[in-house]
Amino acid sequence: MSKEANNNYPLMELIKKRWSPRGFSEKSVEPEKILSMFEAARWAASSANSQPWFFIVGVKEDGENYDKVIQCFNPSNQEWAKYAPIVILTVAKLTYDDGSEYIHSFHDVGLATSNLIYQAMSDGLYVHPIGGIQTDKAKKIFEIPEGYKVLTGIIIGYLGDGSNLSDNNKKREAAERKRKQLSDFVFAGQWGQKLNLID
Ligand SMILES: Cc1cc2nc3c(=O)[nH]c(=O)nc-3n(C[C@H](O)[C@H](O)[C@H](O)COP(=O)(O)O)c2cc1C
What we know:
Bound molecules: flavin mononucleotide
Distance between the termini: 32 Å
Radius of gyration: 18 Å
């Protein structure tokens, strides 16, 4: 299945191609591709180069580590994520090294995650980020210290044919992708006034 963006202006190929599938293939991911994803995350921009991102990784072949990660997802996400070969939790550090509040930490973990997504896609993989996770459970299972926040889950693998999905998730998988218009969120001059380049 392809759910390419129905874009109004030209896009680079991987942005056009990206979407968040639930129907993953069970095919495992080559170790070098896994390492490239995290290398891409490593080279993201961050405030004062503080690199507040952490990734807790479960690879299917590693049974126990995979189970520890996926049990931290909400059951409705586990239901489809369990077929994917890689599951991840992202964690954000909430302070700079001097102890002051790192207000852009979530932003920077998002930038690193975005790098990871596009590196994975350039290697033929698909990625589905989720917020539906059990953060308290994750903190306990992985003994995550104070000052760090478990932020999201990430599911990665090759695209499947969707045959392993429930009827409800098959419907969601086929649903049209919708977006706001540029005029709804690209402003100039004053809040709410669209940039005049936009039709
Ligand atoms: C922070 C975040 C949380 C999300 N949480 C969930 C989730 O819990 N379950 C799920 O199935 N999808 C989740 N998604 C995927 C979004 O629903 C999806 O990105 C959005 O509908 C746009 O679709 P697209 O990624 O295919 O363009 C999440 C995405 C993000 C970035």
